[in-house]
Every structure is written in structure tokens, then in C-alpha cells.
Amino acid sequence: MRSTLLPLETWGLFSSGKRPVVISGPCSAESREGVLGAARAVSALGVEVFRAGAWKPRTSPHSFAGFGEEALPWLVEARAETGMKVMTEVASPLHVEAVLKAGLDAVWIGARTTTNPFLVQEIAEALRGSDLPVLVKNPMSQEVALWIGALERLADVGLKKLGVIHRGFTSCEPSRYRNLPYWQIPISLKQQIAGLPVFCDPSHIAGDRSYVSEIAHQASDIGFDGLMIECHQNPSAALSDASQQITPAELGRLLRSLEHRSVSVEDGQMQAL
Ligand code: PEP
Ligand code: MN
């Protein structure tokens, strides 16, 4: 990549100095009460950045697709009440415009969108001139060049607060996970792109709440800079990704257990276990 990225500590999102940094919140912004309730609960656990999807890419057109723009003020209210920074997924220039207008603190680009260079280019153009942090999830398949290409499109419009999220890849191999992690891929991205913050999303890798903790631990041990974990106050009633979301109590246990682990890597380096 031609331009230099700004280090995570300068993004204005994470100030605790702890590693891995944590982003958490429900898969979807389902209601104002749901957003505020989840935000209060994860904020009490020390989470610094709150996530909730306003626009949800769903496989079936008949599934809940999110409240869209209507949900953005709920996130703004959650920030005012808890002091956490707030972020959502963008998948089109219209989403970007709405997010910039609402004044959210960061966005992520979903796996389905990273797969589409036309859309990534349009999103990048819509972000031109802003300094919004953008986290790019890996594409659905193991096409690393697409992932790097998305970062380059964003960097080419002048964005410098860029990171990636490893959320696993679709695979035909039998696995207990929904999306297979290939740890070597984010590790080598980190080696190739100087200063690139690398996150892991154990929720979308797992697809099942019982595996979220083990994947989060693995990512932390490898030396990921951050984790994005889906958390819902009543996961089984969630309108999307019900089987992989964990409760605030489970998130609390997970975060406490992570803090007790010694991280075996230094200076932002990552290494396979
Ligand atoms: C999400 O974060 O809820 C989401 C839709 O993620 P992904 O793009 O990884 O499927
Ligand atoms: Mn989800």
C-alpha cells in the first residue's frame, strides 16, 4: 500500500491502552431499548466501542434486514449515555452519507461487500474527505487480493485509519465453525502492510456461542490487536445471528479470562501458535 496508516491509538476510539481492544454489541440494532440496554451492559464491562448493524445483509429477502437510518439515532443516544464510541456496517454510499450525517465514530465493511470491488470503490468515494476509521472484514472466500484491494481503494481516497477484521472464510470443508479461520492470512497481511491494525471476529467465525470464547483466546494469543464480539441481552430471541451471540454475563467472563492470559507477543507482532 502506498500511504502510511495511522496507529490504532491515534484513532480516538480506544484509550485504555489494553490489548486486545474490544468492540462489542448486538448483531443488529433491533430497537431503541435493545440498543440502549446492550450498550449499558457492555459499557459496564469496559468495552470502549459499541457495534450494532443498522443495515443487515441477509441471505433471504424475507429475513429481518435492519431498521436502516432510523437506527442511527439509537447509536448516538447510546454514545451520549455511556461514553462509548459507536459504529455500524456500511454497504453502499447511501449508508455512508447517513452515517456521516448522524456523526457515528467508525464503520465496518462486511464480508459480502468486500467481495465486490465496485461497491467498495463507491463506498470509498463517499468517504473521501472524511477521516472516519474503517475496518474491512475479509471477503467471503480466501481471496486475499480482494481484501488488500479494498484497503487500497480506501487508502487511495485519503483514509488513514484503516484496519481489518478476520471473520473466517466460507469453506466446503466439514467444520464445527460457521466460517473457517485461516490465521496465517491476517498474520501475513500484518507483515505486508506496516502498522495495519488486525481484529478478529470470533462470533462470525464460530456461528455458535459455545465456540466464541475459544476462538477469542486463540486470536488474543496470536497477537490480534482487537476483537469484535457480538453480544445481546437475550441472544436466542435476536433477530439475526441468534445462535452466535453471547450474553453480557458471558462476555464479562470471556473478557476477564482474556485479561488473565499472558500475551506471548510483543510490539504488535503476530505469530501462529
Ligand atoms: C456482522 O458483523 O453482523 C456481519 C454481517 O458480518 P459479516 O460481514 O462478517 O458476515
Ligand atoms: Mn452478525
Q: Classify the helix fraction into a percent range.
A: 25-40%
Shape: globular
Radius of gyration: 17 Å
Protein structure class: alpha/beta
Please outline the major beta sheet.
8 strands, parallel, barrel
Q: In percent, how much strand structure appears in the residues?
A: 5-15%
| Total helical segments | 10
Mean pLDDT: 95
Strand order of the largest sheet: 1-2-3-4-5-6-7-8
Helices and strands, in order, run as EHEHEHEHHEHEHEHHEH
Write the layout of secondary structure elements.
Elements lengths: L20 E5 L6 H12 L5 E3 L20 H11 L2 E5 L3 H10 L3 E4 L1 H4 L2 H11 L6 E4 L6 H13 L5 E5 L17 H9 L5 E3 L1 H5 L5 H11 L3 E5 L17 H12 L14
Parallel strand pairs: 1-2, 1-8, 2-3, 3-4, 4-5, 5-6, 6-7, 7-8
